[in-house]
Amino acid sequence: SPRQGPGPAAERPDPSRLRPHVVLAQENTQIRDLQQENRELWVSLEEHQDALELIMSKYRKQMLQLLEGRKREEAEPVLKVHQANSGEIESQIDRICEMGEVMRKAVQVDDEQFFKVQEKLAQLELENKELRELLLISKESFEVGREDLPD
């Protein structure tokens, strides 16, 4: 009986050709996870900043009420403590804002990296499609060539 071309085993894709696609898919998943984590951290950071601002405003209000109820000379040491504490808390808020800026930049870099990976994936998929079409054309021309040969 005449042979009918390659069997089912030959139709399965070569695993080595799948690797770049699989690696890119894994990288995409990791990037999405990191972006989600960054968004969650960013929300958490903003909540902490809001809480600190609220604490500071309440603290200032209480200090003003306390100072209004005392004579000037009694208030002097309390005022110094208030200024020291206020300065410390404000420097902490500044540090948190700096951290927030670093995180914002990290999110931006992650987004850029994600788009680069997406672009590369699209290029590879297009290349793969073109190679499959070329392979199909060459198979068809080979089949036609075989049919022309005498038995």
From TrEMBL:
Keyword list (alphabetical) reads: Coiled coil
The keyword Transmembrane belongs to this UniProt entry's keyword annotation: no
The record's listing under InterPro entries reads: SIKE (IPR008555)
Q: Does the keyword DNA repair apply?
A: no
Q: Tell me which stretches of the chain form a coiled coil.
A: 114-141
- Similarity remark: Belongs to the SIKE family.
Protein name, UniProt field: Suppressor of IKBKE 1
User: Which source organism?
Assistant: Promerops cafer
Q: Its encoding gene is what?
A: Sike1
